[in-house]
Design a protein that fits this description.
heterodimer, A: 128 residues, mainly alpha, 2 domains, 4 helices, B: 65 residues, 88% helix, elongated, Stage III sporulation protein AD (chain A)
């Protein structure tokens, strides 16, 4: 019943932030940052189990390990980027959030380049 | 896990705002600002440690090296 814990924690911290926001907005932002981090840590340990299953499946299906690793890296970058961007946006810094998202997109594109090249290579080989 | 951290930070926030008001009423503006800065730094110290743990966990789980 982890979800009930998380929802309860969210309520409690929301009320605390409402108390603090008027007097000390910077500490309210840090409080929400800590809550988000704790929820992330709780959820990540669950995601690890699912990822291990995916690795097993990929091994059985004879899919090369590099592709799976690339996908996992992309998911990881997306998670971190989203996390950073949301915290910045909550604190009212939409411009910085936009830049963080832009950097994440660029890094994901760089990681995807080998796969795109492989797809293009295959298509070129199929066309006589 | 890190749940006590949340309440510690909220406590520091409330305490700092009370100190700020008290010092301001006593006419010590600079001391009030110094007090705010100290509270902020303490909280930032905890937050950075937790963030470091989060990022290393993400790197572990998603094999981001």
């Amino acid at each position: 019943m982890d979800i009930i814990q998380i929802v309860g924690l969210g309520f409690v911290v929301t009320l605390l932030i409402m108390i603090l926001k008027r007097e000390r907005p910077e500490i309210a932002v840090q409080l929400s940052l800590v809550l988000v981090t704790i929820i992330f840590l709780l959820v990540l340990s669950k995601i690890g189990v699912v990822l291990n299953l995916f690795r097993d499946l990929a091994e059985k299906a004879n899919i090369s390990y590099t592709y799976l690793n690339t996908i996992l890296k992309i998911i990881g970058i997306a998670y971190i980027t989203e996390f950073g961007a949301q915290v910045c946006r909550d604190a009212g810094e939409g411009a910085i959030a936009g830049k963080i998202e832009f950097a994440g997109k660029v890094f994901i594109m760089v990681l995807a380049i080998p796969i795109i090249a492989l797809v293009l290579d295959t298509i070129v080989r199929l066309i006589p | 896990m890190g749940l006590d951290l949340l309440f510690k930070i909220a406590g520091v926030g409330i305490l700092v705002s009370v100190f700020h008001t008290a010092l301001k009423q006593a006419g010590k503006e600079d001391m009030a600002h110094l007090c705010t800065l100290a509270g902020f730094t303490i909280v930032l110290f905890w937050v950075v440690q937790l963030l470091g743990r989060l990022f290393s966990t993400v790197q572990d789980v998603f094999k981001l090296f």
